[in-house]
Amino acid sequence: MRGRFITLEGGEGAGKTTQAKVLAERLRRKGINVLLTREPGGTPRAEAIREVLLSGKAKRFGALGEAVLFYAARESHLELCIRPALERGTWVICDRFSDSTRAYQGAAGGLPLSVIETIDKAVVGDTRPDLTLIFDLPPELGLKRAAERLREGVAPAAVADERAERPASAEGFRGAATGSDVIALAPSIDAPAPDRFETMNLAFHRSLRAEFLAIAKAEPERCALVDASDTPTRVEDRVWSIVRDRFQL
Ligand SMILES: Nc1ncnc2c1ncn2[C@@H]1O[C@H](COP(=O)(O)OP(=O)(O)OP(=O)(O)O)[C@@H](O)[C@H]1O
Ligand SMILES: Cc1cn([C@H]2C[C@H](O)[C@@H](COP(=O)(O)O)O2)c(=O)[nH]c1=O
């Protein structure tokens, strides 16, 4: 049976990475094979693109240029990592996916939705998430958390983690060759400094929030809203109750 595809979406510092790890552990405790991954990233090629995008080096290409790069990374990720895992029956938990492009490069970045939808159709096809958890909180709070994370010297976690899973191709996870469980990614991009999008102004982050809320409202069969301003334990419980109900676990 095909695995389930779960994505986590939302603004900066919303707690997606924190909760993705907890969810993966909870599912594993139920005996489910889980691939925990992130976007942009998940394969060496996509991680290299991540470095370019988050450093701000691609900013001068505008929202269209950045969107094309996000989709180049997504194509590699889907082809070498996500689709093979789903076909093996592994559940995939992905920290950000297409809704982020729609919010960041679309609503907040000014790229028309029709352009994103065209590229999305070509790259993602029918590999759509079965469930998208949308983490909602005021951007001021999310940015404060992200700033505290930086002050504590904690880089946004590299979540590519395949445990028992192994990619079929040489372009798969870097850690596969060494057999490591959690993939250690190149430090340069995850060094503690605000990334390209964290440095945008509050108006940008407000439009992100509005777009994520609009997506959740427009697609209630796929999306579930999570109040990310709550305590970590409460958020964890809410996530688990959504996942349990959705997949009848
Ligand atoms: N519910 C919560 N309450 C308070 N702090 C939290 C909560 N969840 C996560 N945090 C903390 O906030 C910071 C950001 O969390 P995390 O990295 O999980 O967010 P994120 O949504 O993945 O962020 P980004 O998209 O910016 O990478 C971390 O330092 C984390 O420990
Ligand atoms: C997938 C995707 C991501 N982004 C932005 C959103 C964040 O600012 C970074 C990713 O960093 P994180 O710490 O892993 O959250 O990239 C984007 O603008 N468009 C996208 O499609």
Automatic annotation (TrEMBL):
SUPFAM superfamilies: P-loop containing nucleoside triphosphate hydrolases. Its EC number is 2.7.4.9. GO terms for molecular function: ATP binding; dTMP kinase activity. GO terms for biological process: dTDP biosynthetic process; dTTP biosynthetic process; dUDP biosynthetic process. It holds the Pfam family Thymidylate_kin. GO terms for cellular component: cytosol. InterPro entries: P-loop_NTPase, Thymidylate_kin-like_dom, Thymidylate_kin_CS, Thymidylate_kinase. ATP binds at residues 10-17. It catalyses: dTMP + ATP = dTDP + ADP. Keywords: ATP-binding, Kinase, Nucleotide biosynthesis, Nucleotide-binding, Transferase. Residues 8-149 form the Thymidylate kinase-like domain. Belongs to the thymidylate kinase family. Phosphorylation of dTMP to form dTDP in both de novo and salvage pathways of dTTP synthesis. This is Thymidylate kinase. It comes from Rhodomicrobium udaipurense.
